[in-house]
User: Fold this.
Amino acid sequence: MEQGRFLDDADNARHGLLAVIGSEARDKLFSGMPALGEDIRIDGVDFQVVGVVSPRMQEGDDDDNRTIYIPYNSMNVLKDNHYLDGIWMDSLGLDHDKLDRTVRDTLAAAHGFKSDDKRAIFVFDAQKQLSQFSIISLALKVLLAFIGTLTLGIGGVGLMNMMLVSVTQRTREIGVEKALGARKRDILFQFLAEAMVITAVGGMLGIGLSYVVSVSVGRLTFYSAMAKHAEAADIRLIVSPMILLVATGILAVVGVVSGMVPAMRAAKLDPIEALRYE
Assistant:
């Protein structure tokens, strides 16, 4: 509520001719003048304004900011409210399919029709509409996972090439280490550890960059520039801890695979040939 109060059970019980109006309705009816305590006329009947609803973000033609609310029992002065145009139900923590069946069974028992007759009553389930968005969301996740995997693969190839060049440039160093008693597994661990360190540093920089991007993009205005009464910085990006764990695991595998080939090549070098290498 921006001003005043909303309707309550007492208003409905005494058939009070009271109204709560939206912010745009207030602006159109009162042109900036105070609305609380004033009367508005609906189909020739005067209703006293007891509250003004805060503006909410809307799009399209269905604008709740122009809505006027009156007590249900007071509707009989405007139309016959014995026959309802519709009933809106809001549930929390319930199975929406079970709620659908309960509504149909209850109305079928009261009005004598089969509860499985879809033509007898129309029930719109908003949750089913949300399931369509979940399919789109899943498709986007699969696409982004493919792009991420491809990017990690390209990064792994780059890391492998870099380590192979490092092995070639440090051939004499490897020969000296072997001449001083270094075993194959010591050389293998040395180059594998270097590859893992490079991978870890790159991963930490990537995680830090993801948080910077999420915070930066969250401060930009996108949707609110087109929709009315929308909040600034309306897009909020959240870095999921589970995604971070999965990405870290994949990154570790890429680092091990990319560093293993150069490390094995370095470990297999002949010390005499390595010392003679220029």
Observations:
- The two ends are 81 Å apart (CA to CA).
- DSSP finds eight helices and five strands in the chain.
